[in-house]
Amino acid sequence: MQTSLTIFMALLLAHLLGDFPLQSKWISRHKGTSLRAMVLHGVAHYLLSWACLILFTQVRWLSVSTQGIILGFTVIHLLTDKLKYWSTTQEISLVQRSPFVFGSRKTLMPDDWKTFLLDQSLHVIFLAAAASILNPGHLGELMEGLQPSPIAKQHILEVAMVYIAVVFGGGYLIRYLTKGLAKDAPSNSPAQLENAGLYIGWLERLLVVTAIAVQTPALVGLILTGKSIARFPEFKEPRFVEYFLIGTLLSISIAVLGGIVLHQLLYGTISLK
Fold first, then answer.
1. What pLDDT shows up at residue 70?
2. What is the pLDDT of residues 120-153, one digit of tens each?
3. Do 55 and 10 form a contact (C-beta atoms < 8 A)?
4. C or N terminus of the chain, fewer CB within 10 Å?
5. pLDDT number for residue 235
6. Which residue intervals of the chain are DSSP H helices?
């Protein structure tokens, strides 16, 4: 494995450990407002970075320049976290202060999954920059190591094609096939989440395709059982039961077919062991 890629992966492991399993709830909630929480978060990332670099790479940890690079990266990480906190809290503050906040004037980031992905993407970019600086003159090695092989590209294309067709395209097909039944089906109650059925269908087909592709068809039964248990109280309504069974069996059938196709594309065989 290329040296630059190894450094990048070691730093990424440290980042994942520091931002998720080893970050306490108190630090997560207060690192944007408490200096103590921010310092503890920074120290954790600094120590984890060096622990992973020493364990998995040959970076000279006694070098002043490398210490400065990791320290600088840690500071940038904290500044990114601070910027995220400031942007999200200011956005909430604007909404609370004024009942009329026009969409075109809301320039600050909301605290949602898009902000989370943007924050993590920035961290990864800075990680890649730190890895290239720690191994000067070898940025090409990092890019080459991250570049998938032609076979991997083909598999990525096949997986993306099948998953999107089954998870999302399958949802449209089921909607058209059950269109005549939908008018007689019971509507969602206020206690139910909006679009919950849509999201459940996506997750259901994603899991079933994966189960078939990795040759664990027994998981399909567990998925169907879990879904049935969750909707058991509603089975007292005959029309709901029929609508539920038709929609679920259609979804499972499409996903199983997609899993078989994906298995054939990836391994050249069809197997349901």
1. 95
2. 999 999 998 998 888 865 555 555 655 677 888 8
3. yes
4. C
5. 67
6. 3-19, 25-30, 35-56, 64-97, 113-134, 139-146, 150-164, 170-177, 179-182, 196-213, 218-230, 238-267
Rg of the chain over all Cα atoms, to the nearest angstrom: 25
- Residue in 70, 29, 73 with CA at minimum distance from that of residue 53: 70
Stated pTM of the model: 0.71
* Single-letter amino acid code for the residue at 268: G
Contact at 8 Å (CB) between 131 and 57? no
* Residue ranges in the chain modelled with pLDDT below 50: 1, 98-107, 190
Please give the Cα distance from 205 to 167 (Å, whole number): 6
Q: Tell me how far apart the alpha carbons of residues 94 and 6 are, in angstroms, rounded to a whole number.
A: 44
As given in the structure block, the two tokens for residue 41 are: 């978060």
- CA 99, CA 273: separation in Å to the nearest integer? 59
77: its two tokens: 């990480």
b vs e for 153-187, b when ≥16 Cβ sit within 10 Å of the residue's Cβ?
A: eeeeeebeebbebbbeebbeebeeeeeeeeeebee
CA atoms 204, 210, 212, 215: torsion sign? negative
Length of the chain: 273
Q: Domain residues of the chain, as ranges?
A: 3-146, 150-267
Structure tokens at 73: 């990266």
Question: Which pLDDT score, from 0 to 100, does residue 79 have?
Answer: 93
Position 104 scores a pLDDT of 41
